[in-house]
Amino acid sequence: MNNVTELVSGRGEWLKTRETDDGIVISSRIRLARNLCGFPFLNRCSESERSEIQSLVMTALNGSELAKDYFYVELENLGPLEKELLVERHLISRQHANTEGPRGVALLADETVSIMVNEEDHLRMQVLGGGFQLDKIWQRLNCLDDQLENRLEFAYHEQFGYLTACPTNVGTGIRVSVMMHLPALKITGEIERVFRAARDMRLAVRGLYGEGTEATGDFYQISNQCTLGKTEEEIVEDFRSTVVPRISDYELRARELLRREKPALVEDKVWRAIGMLKYARTINTQETLTLLSYIRLGLNMGLINDVDIETINDLFLSSQPAHLQIISAKRMDSDLRSKLRAEFIRRRLCDHQNN
Amino acid sequence: MNNVTELVSGRGEWLKTRETDDGIVISSRIRLARNLCGFPFLNRCSESERSEIQSLVMTALNGSELAKDYFYVELENLGPLEKELLVERHLISRQHANTEGPRGVALLADETVSIMVNEEDHLRMQVLGGGFQLDKIWQRLNCLDDQLENRLEFAYHEQFGYLTACPTNVGTGIRVSVMMHLPALKITGEIERVFRAARDMRLAVRGLYGEGTEATGDFYQISNQCTLGKTEEEIVEDFRSTVVPRISDYELRARELLRREKPALVEDKVWRAIGMLKYARTINTQETLTLLSYIRLGLNMGLINDVDIETINDLFLSSQPAHLQIISAKRMDSDLRSKLRAEFIRRRLCDHQNN
């Protein structure tokens, strides 16, 4: 079994920048919810049934051509920091980290695929990719689904489609979600209007870590709420051609508006963010993400070139609590973390600055 | 007549640091209120009486041995920026700048003495000095008072002493005030307790520009409220030996407390202040003074040595609205001033930094 903590040295797929990016779409993700025939949904599963489900999935994976690329992690064997690390890297949900009982995740080492076992459904398969690349991701996920379906029997109903623990996932079991960076809409105050429009389109808008989390660092996950009545391809296409371009466009217009009407305001926010991160002696995660967000905006708007985007993207990930503690190889309370975080960021920004 | 705007290039007596300073007492000031016999108090003076008073004082000054060192400024001849400059340098009160009618101020070029004519009283003579030096200041002021009294007849009552427009000044007409920098008491939240104690000692606590102004930059003016029943020397001695040492001691203890129990908090505030001032692209006076105050605290506590105290003291003065406009030789609205202020400070801090 691979060591989970080794992931910390990787760049994190969800923040990997592609050359074609405009910096607004951070990453694309699609997941499918599946359940095995012959077992109750998880809220009614006994401990031994959960173990059995986990074994069946592991056997199926090991028997498939995926075996050589994947490593399986049983969450019961992980310490709290390691679980938190997987959450911070968007490889498992917070819920999956925090519940009890036999459960795990199969990971591809490059972090583009994770298959959660015994989360809300028996299986949650996700493919993740930096930037805006829903088609490619959907092809990979569809393929993965086929390979597993060859070895496992999924609960399927002629009329309803795939059956899931929560009725909102019944049918295709698909959730397309795109992580977007929308700082200008936040500054101009238009973000609420965009969200209302999104809800009218039956989309969900969530924070950095999904359901119930805050929109830290101006990162928003936009996802479909509707899994019935449309094919997977239609849902993906809807995101590709309508939802994401439209929200991106709002953000771009907000940036233009700021550039035209309040250039001093944005410039000041961006430069102050750099100043704060280079000088603070103690800083919490929330403030760090907010400041990094302004710097990212400044870079994308071409207002600064003192820092490179890779450094900033990397800091979004590595300044978080579990990352910080694993990188420095010690457990720390939040005060000590804040001090170490400030030091860590300062060192990174001074190493990477151009002038 | 000297040009008022030339004062801008001077260091400003009230912020001049002496070698013996602990950084808590910024400056010492004593003033005497006097009125001429044969004229009503100013609120009842006609315009021509005001002119006459002004002429009498100018003649007295010119006839005295003070003549060669002083220059007299008629405020009616000054533009609003020049008047504001005198306020920012603590050479006249805001009230004196803002009222109408014949009035002026006699100044010593080194800014240690100013004699306001037709402010609240016919004469308000003040001697000002950087640091804690009340004895020396009182000797000079007493001497000045004698010289003027040789040439002018002051309203004096056998029983009450010197008569003044406001009864709170009757008697000695003296106000001793010491400008103190009390950032640690502010951070620890003890400042209110100190102020209550000060009020019990019949002291007034005011902000940076005296009566009715805010305590910007953690600068507080402590002054006597009582001008009757004690001699001038007793009042001065009370400040010298009791009031100021006691408040200084509170501040020093607060600094020790911070150093011992919250070193990270202070260090963080100080470094962030440097970061903000070095990076902000727009900044108002209020925020500037707050940040400069933290840097001053950091220097006095020995937490930093990146900046020299002279630069910081100078910025307290030169970043203010009128100074900024006179230095850059143009009138600006507040938005433009905030941009220019940020640029000005950035340049100064980068010029003077050691590393």
Fourth-tier CATH superfamily name of the largest domain in chain A:
Glutamine synthetase/guanido kinase, catalytic domain
> Do you know the CATH topology of the largest domain in chain A?
Creatine Kinase, Chain A, domain 2
The run of helices and strands of chain A is EHEHHEEEHEEEHHEEHHHHHH
Mean pLDDT of chain A equals: 90
Shape of chain A: globular
Query: In which range does the helix fraction of chain A lie?
Result: 40-55%
What is the total number of structural domains of chain A? 2
Percent strand of chain A equals 15-25%
How many β-strands of chain A, per DSSP? 10
- Helix tally of chain A equals 12
Largest interface: A-B, 17 and 17 residues
Second-tier CATH architecture of the largest domain in chain A:
2-Layer Sandwich
CATH class of the largest domain in chain A, named Alpha Beta
Radius of gyration of chain A: 21 Å
Structural class of chain A: alpha+beta
